[in-house]
Design a protein that fits this description.
Blueprint (H helix, E strand, L loop, with lengths): L10 H13 L4 H25 L11 E2 L4 E2 L6 E6 L7 H4 L3 E6 L7 E2 L3 E2 L14 H37 L6 H31 L6 H7 L6 H33 L5 H30 L11 H21 L9 H23 L10 H28 L2 H17 L1 H6 L1
Antiparallel strand pairs: 1-2, 3-4, 5-6
Helix pairs in contact: 1-2, 4-5, 4-11, 5-7, 5-11, 7-8, 7-9, 7-10, 8-9, 9-10, 10-11
């Protein structure tokens, strides 16, 4: 019995898999993984069948699995036809199609260039053609990726600059600005995790595949550890964003009602609330994913109950924020009103899309609604860090005044440079 295994024989499987990856804008990796699992099942069934069936007498072409289809023994000088493989993602549309090979008069399968097996699988390939709609969807998703990459990069640079300003200027060191700094840090970590996850995905799916072992390594759980870690960090930072906004709202509420308290003691509680609360929800979500949906980068939601583990806390935080900010603002000092105005401006921009689309996941939305959701989610999420840094730092009168003083002092310390200008 002869089994034609080689790098050239994998060409069709590689083509099928990569078409799966790029023909589906979201979740292509999941389709690829499912396709490979079905291919493994098809291969195992083929090998068992070849081992159990008796051999014919006389000259014949040996039964074989050529990495694409399972072939029985062939009579010399004839064409052998088999059904399209069931692992194809579009199998339902081509299940009546046939793939064929020729058995030569010498009892050897006909090859191309003396090594690669010849076969005609045109009846199984109809769905591999990329339609205009699929190409448009692919280009749209590429544009979305460029959009949010620019947004997260701009946000990260702005947030780092804002953190440096709050750190360098001693006169700006107070509980309120410490809270702002932690909020900036949560947004910065979120932007970093998204960009790292994208880099890991590109590196993972951009490898060259030459052997079956490459596929098994590519789709193993170990290979996904990096992007899973980035996914966990991203979900943690999303929750941290919301709970540091909750801290902002609680602090503002305390300020508005004129409560007398020790800021140092409360700041420690703020740290627990902002950085500790997300752990309470992310850890159970990680356990559920690891035990029940340990596939790919944990980005898809097959069981929505696990998804709600990290989404219910977001709703709760948003409701508490709105409740805390309903206090009557009349009669308060101007600086308190400015704080309230900044917070009330940011929170709707920050959370409105989370609330609107909380029940519309990527798996549940289709068509134009899906693209609208993806656009608004990616746009708002990626540029939020930039907006937060501008409103809470660079547009703040205290910060601008302090930076102006720093600039004046720098000019006094460097008179030569100033005069040269």
């Amino acid at each position: 019995m002869r089994d034609a295994l080689g790098a050239g024989s994998l060409r069709s499987l590689v083509q099928v898999a990569w078409m799966c990856l790029f023909s589906v804008p979201h979740g292509g990796a999941k389709v690829l993984e499912k396709t490979f699992e079905e291919w493994l099942r098809y291969r195992d069934e083929c090998l068992r069948r070849m081992a159990s069936e008796p051999y014919p007498a006389g000259l014949f072409c040996n039964r074989t699995f050529d990495m694409y289809a399972c072939w029985p023994d062939g009579s010399p000088g004839t064409a052998v036809n088999v059904s399209c493989p069931f692992y194809l993602p579009w199998f339902e549309k081509v299940k009546h199609g046939l793939v064929s090979r020729r058995c030569g008069t010498d009892g050897q399968w006909v090859t191309v260039n003396g090594s690669q097996p010849w076969r005609d699988y045109s009846q199984c390939e109809d769905e591999l053609e990329v339609t205009a709609e699929e190409e448009g969807a692919r280009r749209l998703m590429v544009s979305f990726k460029v959009l949010y990459t620019v947004g997260y990069s701009l946000s990260l640079l702005t947030l780092i600059s804002a953190l440096l300003v709050l750190t360098v200027c001693r006169n700006l060191r107070c509980t309120r600005n410490y809270i702002h700094a932690n909020l900036f840090a949560s947004f910065g970590l979120r932007a970093t995790s998204v960009m790292v996850k994208d880099a890991l995905l590109e590196r993972r799916w951009g490898v060259q595949l030459a052997e079956v072992a490459d596929w098994e390594a590519l789709l193993s759980h170990e290979a996904a550890l990096g992007c899973r870690a980035a996914q966990v960090l991203m979900q943690y930072c999303i929750l941290a964003n919301h709970y540091w906004f909750l801290v902002e709202a609680v602090y503002l509420y305390k300020l508005l009602i004129g409560a007398v308290f020790s800021e140092k003691n409360y700041y420690r509680l703020y740290l627990y609330l902002g950085w500790g609360t997300p752990v309470v929800f992310v850890v159970p979500w990680m356990a559920a994913k690891y035990l029940k949906e340990n596939a790919e980068c944990w980005a898809l939601n097959e069981n929505m109950a696990y998804w709600w583990i990290i989404r219910i806390p977001i709703l709760l935080a948003s409701l508490v924020i709105l409740a805390k900010l309903r206090a009557n603002q009349k009669g308060y000092a101007d600086y308190k009103l400015r704080l309230a105005k900044a917070t009330l401006t940011l929170i709707p921009l920050f959370g409105i899309h989370e609330v609107v689309f909380i029940f519309a996941t990527d798996e549940q939305t289709t068509g134009i609604l899906r693209y609208i959701k993806v656009f608004f989610t990616l746009f708002l999420n990626s540029f939020q860090g930039f907006l937060v840094a501008v409103l809470y730092c660079f547009a703040n009168k205290e910060v601008k005044s302090e930076m102006k003083k720093k600039w004046q002092l720098w000019k006094l310390d460097h008179p030569v440079l100033c005069c040269a200008q």
